[in-house]
Every structure is written in C-alpha cells, then in structure tokens.
C-alpha cells in the first residue's frame, strides 16, 4: 500500500518571521515538503520585508488574503496601520509577488481547494460568524451558503486565525489557524475579537491516505516576546498584548 501523502497548510503569517521560522524548522524536522499557503503574508508591525523574502525563497503555492490585496491594490490613504506599515516596508519585487498571487487555487490532483475567506470573498469567514462581539462556530446552513456548489472534497481556508476541522456533508473544511497572530480585534461594523488563548504559532498537517484524510493541528512555541517587543517598538501595544497572550486587548 502506498504511503499517505502529507501536506502542510499555513495561513495568516502577518509578517511574523520569528513564528514563521519556528514553523519552517518543524516542517523540515517532519520532512514535510508539500506546503500550501492561504494568505495574509505581511500585514502588521513586525517584519514584512523579511517574511516576504523568506516566503519567496521557499516558493510554496500560495494565495493572497484580504490584507495582501489591500497592501498591493488599495491606495495608501485607505490603509489601516498594519497595512500601511507593510506597504512601506516591502520592496517592489515583493509587492509584485504579492499582487500576482491568485485569490484561490483548485488543486485537483489533491482534491483540495484553497481560499482565504470564503471561495467568493476573501473578507468573509467560512467557519465562524461574529456574535455578541466574538467569533462563534457557524451553523451548517451558513457554511453551505458560503461554500457554494461543486467544491473539492477538501477545502482549506484561513482568515479567522482560529484552527478548526469541520465536516460539512462530504466536504472536509480545514482552517490551520494563524502562524503569526493569535488574536485580533476587528472594529467597525460587526465589531468582534478573535482569540485562541495562547501565543503559539499554528499550522496543520493534512494526511491523504486510503482510509480518508486525517488532520493534525500543530501549535509551536517560538520567541513571542521578541515579536511583542518589535510590535511595541513600532507603536502597536495592541499587537504586543495579542502576541504575548493570545487574547485581544480590550479597553
């Protein structure tokens, strides 16, 4: 019998090269060579340029998230502080790389579809809904509407930063969680927080075998204090708190 094929899924690095390096070391130690990246690569007050450089060198199949799109496509006057920091830090080659990434990837050889948010919109959550200021698990009917028809056997998404594995009919949906940002606060309409409660770097391993797919959620320690100190030095105490604790800072 052939050995199962193992795939790593990473998402939402957000310029945290320290967390990314910890994930890379773990991937290499596990001998995982097939890696798919679900977007939001550089936005944030950490190390956007260094993160982009490392990802470009790895050459993983990648899609872009909503923040990648905003960094490259939106006018600077509309940028929030995280996107503005990243846009100012990356060079033209890195900007071109981000801008050229597709919104989704349909990897038929693996029976796998990659999207950042939902297949049709990188700004929306697939597996969560904001309720009373927090992200809660979406209902099956909500997932069905967001997923649409004719999707692959396995759908991988990011955006919420919350690791989840959900069976929706015949479709397995996997969110690997965030490599680089374990909590955030979304302001404006439908304001809410996303929190995983620890500062660990997260990714997932998808094993495709004869008895069906298996998913392992990975949570790794790294020098989160260095990332928090970097955020503070760049004027983002909210990020520093999230990076240290895994919780969003509240007034």
CATH architecture designation: 4-Layer Sandwich
If you consult CATH, what is the topology? Purple Acid Phosphatase, chain A, domain 2
- Please give the domain count: 1
Average pLDDT over all residues: 95
Beta strands, count: 13
User: How big is the Rg?
Assistant: 17 Å
User: What is the N-to-C order of secondary-structure elements (H for helix, E for strand)?
Assistant: EHEHHHHEEEEHEEEEEEEHH
Structural class: alpha/beta
**Low-pLDDT segments:** none
Helix content: 25-40%
Q: Hey, roughly how much beta strand do the residues contain?
A: 25-35%
End-to-end distance: 57 Å
CATH hierarchy class name: Alpha Beta
Strand order of the largest sheet: 3-4-7-9-8
Number of helices: 8
Largest pleated sheet: 5 strands, mixed
- Which term fits the overall shape? globular
CATH superfamily annotation: Metallo-dependent phosphatases
List keywords for this structure.
251 residues; alpha/beta; Purple Acid Phosphatase, chain A, domain 2; 8 helices
């Amino acid at each position: 019998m052939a050995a199962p094929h193992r795939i790593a899924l990473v998402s939402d690095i957000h310029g945290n090269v320290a967390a990314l390096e910890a994930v890379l070391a773990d991937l290499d130690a596990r001998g995982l060579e097939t890696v798919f990246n679900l977007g939001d690569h550089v936005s944030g007050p950490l190390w956007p340029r260094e993160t982009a450089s490392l990802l470009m060198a790895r050459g993983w199949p990648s899609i872009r998230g909503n923040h990648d799109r905003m960094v490259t496509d939106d006018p600077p006057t509309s940028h929030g502080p995280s996107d503005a920091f990243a846009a100012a830090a990356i060079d033209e080659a890195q900007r071109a790389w981000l801008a050229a990434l597709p919104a989704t990837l349909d990897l038929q050889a693996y029976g796998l579809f990659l999207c950042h948010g939902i297949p049709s919109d990188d700004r929306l959550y697939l597996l969560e809904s904001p309720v009373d200021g927090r992200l809660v698990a979406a209902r099956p009917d909500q997932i069905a509407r967001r997923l649409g028809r004719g999707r692959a056997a396995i759908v991988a998404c990011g955006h919420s930063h919350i690791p989840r594995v959900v069976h929706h009919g015949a479709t397995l949906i996997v969110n690997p969680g965030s490599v680089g940002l374990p909590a955030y606060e979304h302001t404006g309409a439908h304001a809410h927080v996303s929190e995983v409660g620890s500062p660990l770097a997260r990714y997932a391993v998808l094993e495709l075998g004869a008895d069906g797919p298996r998913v392992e959620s990975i949570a790794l320690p790294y020098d989160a204090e260095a990332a928090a100190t970097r955020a503070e030095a760049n004027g983002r105490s909210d990020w520093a708190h999230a990076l240290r604790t895994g919780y969003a800072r509240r007034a």
